[in-house]
Amino acid sequence: MTLKLLPVLVVSLSLTLPMASPRAQPCGPLTVQIADTGPGCAPSGASIPNLSAFVSASTTLCSVSVALDQKMVVFPIRGATLLIGVSDPGLAIPFLPGCALRAMPDVSVAMVPDVVFGRQHFAFSFPQDPALIGSSLFAQGIWSAAGELRFSNGIQLSVR
Prior knowledge:
The chain has one helix and twelve strands, in the order αββββββββββββ.
């Protein structure tokens, strides 16, 4: 039975490398700038999840890997949602003091949990097309824990 779990552990471990967010990351003829747009929050004062991103390049695509680190492992691992939008409204969230919406929820996706380290992942790709220069995406993670919503910091990915 242990041998059957080995491929799963290898895949999990390969997905949990530290997710640094250097300010500018090259991708073919493009550069993707990653910047924080504001802090996250946990209304009860619990740990605040951290959102980071890393860009890698293939021959024709830029791949973005986004990770939500919950700073603690809670079992069972609960799912997280990633909000992706084309603007940062910076709106205060009613009934959650100190919390702000850092990405307009144009798209929301379920993140993939990593049961080994308690992180959540989501990846997407876009073409290395110079026509994308000047475009931006904003993202923020939401994690439900112990009956409350915790919001990550916001990040902005800008193509230059």
